[in-house]
Design goal:
- With 480 residues, this protein is of the alpha/beta class.
- It has 13 helices and 14 strands.
- The strands form four sheets. It has a seven-stranded mixed beta sheet, sandwiched between helices.
- Helix 8 links the parallel strand 7 and strand 8.
Length: 480
Amino acid sequence: MTANVYPGAFGARKFSINRNTGVPRPARRFSIGEPSATEASSKIHRQFRAAHEGHLPHAGLDATRASTGVVWCTERAGEHGFFDEPDKWANLGQGAPEVEDDIEGCFPRPKTIDISVSSREYGPTAGIKPLREAVARLYNEMHRKGQPSQYTWENVAIVPGGRAGLIRIAAVLNNAYVGFFIPDYTAYNEMLSLFKNFAAIPVPLAEEDGYHIHPDKIAEEIARGTGVIITSNPRNPTGRVVANPELAEIQDICRDRATLVSDEFYSGYNYTSDCDGTTISAAENVMDVDEDDVLIIDGLTKRFRLPGWRVAWIIGPKEFIKAIGSCGSYLDGGTNVPFQQAAIPMLEPELVKKEMKALQHHFRDKRDYVVSRLRKMGFVIKHVPDSTFYLWLNLEGLPTPIADGLNFFQACLEEKVIVVPGIFFDLNPARRRDLFDSPCHHFVRFSYGPKLETLKMGCDGIERVVKKFRDLEKRGSGEA
């Protein structure tokens, strides 16, 4: 939903919606444009409003804190029977890769783990030293060959998953403006909401150029006082990547001016170098591993296809890694020790290189399949993703009843398909903004992480949705 407005103009403010009845009530600040008839009459929109009240204040306990975008979507799918028969559904919403051992060229994952007596004890909250050494060795081999400054185990903290890593980073941030981009990873919402030691500043990116992060945008944010910048790269949900030389330019701009937090969980899903196994990382452009304020977060979750293991890492200057390791003592208690021990052999650099090459070929083939299917259905895909396993799918041009993310999501549920409405990636920490004017309304995130069989089933379901509403549109216009 869009509206023509000018800065400071409030004459076109829309009505707010009563969270229980869905009935419009008097206008409130920061809203623009009236809700469309489609939104006002939509059950799924009313459910979303009930759970996400824009910037209205809350008192006491807030039960909606528990619900991220994917969780909310899964709960709605559960209302349609997803939990009873998950095998009959195409879950294209969960941000997870296929975990089976049948990708040609990939090494088989452990099916059993040898649990040592020592691993029964509490482990260090910064992770066990052998795994920290293995991570440092991997980054030095893949990203820092020939550079005088090398990572050591003291530059690595092992954390129990990406979200735990983000929360640990948030805990050690100083009083600062923290810039984040829109759209981006949904879990940043909670990271940027729960801690009061910094102020979160949204930085909208332009749809016209594929939501690309330009170096001049970084310079502009630093010039207005931003001291920390957090972003996923490769980018979730758009599937784009900031690669060198632009990434190096961004790091040069940040050096001695701002801390860059680079979420690199999709670093292996890189299709920009013809699937030769090359991964994307800010580690390549760090001048001094203990001086450059660059924190890198990654792990086994995505590129090693082990989301259930909850083994991830943060890399950065020693003094910050020490603090990040220590704060695990009161935040999460540290990472499961047996799984840390089992992860060490996986990080041998030559093995990883072969793994990434096989991974990239396999997922690029899946990307090409879904892009071809969706284009045949009439979807306009201006920017084919050059990384990750996501499509940021524009719904403009579809029949009006399914031309926004929430209603398209609802229609897909009827066909046992799950996608994620784009509005969840319009990050809104502490709910300070009204999201019903969101530029992400007419998008959904489509994941081609699952197996090809699931993708085929999902595309078949989406095709039925599109055909159904196009037929209704034709009948309504008298064309049928």
